[in-house]
Design a protein that fits this description.
The protein is an all-alpha fold. It is built from 3 helices and no strands.
Length: 106
């Protein structure tokens, strides 16, 4: 006779940081029956965004505006696509500081 597994109750969390900390140190299979999980879709989910200030040469902005106009898309959206593609295509490299040696004055 198979034994029915009892799952621990999932605690209530006061914020996402508390929940993240909990799940980083606990095994979810003790709390959730993953065999009953079903795939879901969130078609209206929007990624979090943050406004930044970025200085670019005027020529780059103008070329991007022309290209965006040809494609009938906002130029900011085209810039976001270019940045996302560049990040996805390039392997991560460790940051290397440039050290400039100067002569000591006496």
């Amino acid at each position: 006779m198979s034994k029915i597994k009892r799952f621990k109750p999932i605690p209530n969390f006061s914020n996402e940081d508390e929940e993240r900390e909990f799940w980083s140190s606990h095994d979810s299979t003790e709390y959730i029956d993953w065999s009953k999980a079903v795939p879901v879709s969130f078609p209206n989910l929007k990624l979090s965004t943050k406004t930044i200030s970025l200085r670019l040469p005027v020529s780059v902005i103008n070329k991007t505006k022309i290209k965006a106009n040809q494609m009938d898309v906002p130029y900011q959206s085209l810039m976001k696509q270019y940045i996302a593609q560049g990040v996805a295509e390039r392997p991560a490299r460790p940051y290397r500081a440039i050290v400039v040696k100067t002569k000591k004055t006496k």
